């Protein structure tokens, strides 16, 4: 018999009669709707926090201390002196008489442009961005859920925006978590990437119909969905967010239908290059000239939407935790990537070689795995082992777990949207540091790629 000092584990001595009395009636399909509706009410309650009078998310203000520490590299005294000398510049606002000045991000961007034009040329006021090159598309992917995929993509997008880049976020996950973070409103699949994919397929059918007519055959009619999609472009599905330099193509549950529709289209037109649909749609719409960076948040599965996101991407980031299961799963993810894209290349190149055409070869500027939610007290040895096997593929920077992300998540926000006054300032600085370092590692990769392309362009022009 167990003593009070050593009680039995809780799974002993469960009374079946009491357990039976605690049961609810058997669940039916209709009960799922009630649960979903309860979740929707809770989600609306959480999402409503921090909204403005129009019911939209509002980005917080930034203090002089934050601006001069993180955004514009000048001394605080010099920053104040420049504002005093230039009354036409944004002057900020004080919450108390003689208190600290606070600025919107839009005002910060104007101030940064002024310092770039008038300030020291030795300082980096504007981020490096070669002229004449298209935006870089960055896919964040892993078919294992819970690895910090959406959080990583969202915080990189916010970091890049704070750095001064123009950012587009594309949510391919029908769960719509990224859309929620950026306050997006998506009524149905027609406000997602779906019409862009449908348009791409419809354009292919049109080209095939022209060939059919030339051969004296009857064209294949386009259904209402494809006809409507032909009227749309990327600009029709891009929406503004509460960040002045981050736009969004959102997602919602109906987007999952694309996973079933795309293979149906492909069966009807084997020549349709479905993997090119998203990349072509963004390029065709001039999106890659409008933005500097496009972050693509993919579903936690290697389906047709993920294949589109990966094929469109220039850079692939794969977040994972420092654990055996996540390391093992991520290895299988890379194996599946190889199988998928190699099989596409093989199938396409049989015809290409027969017709004397250029062969298909997928290429990414860089591929990096990134350790997220890292706990140095327990995971250092595992992370070192992963580094030894993955080498340069695994970023040496490890994104530490921080309580800041949990608190921000309760408010459907990123840590850059959290007001540091809600924390001890040093706690905020330490918590923010891990995300700043994640962005620094990514930015180093990005700038190296852009510089390589600049050099290649100059050599080609010589």
Automatic annotation (TrEMBL):
Q: Which Gene3D superfamilies match?
A: P-loop containing nucleotide triphosphate hydrolases
Task: Please give the superkingdom of this protein's source.
Answer: Bacteria
**Pfam families per UniProt:** AAA_31
**Ranges annotated as spanning the membrane:** none
Domain named AAA: residues: 136-327
List the CDD domains hit by this protein, alphabetically: ParAB_family
This one is known as Cellulose biosynthesis protein BcsQ
- Organism from which the protein derives: Meinhardsimonia xiamenensis
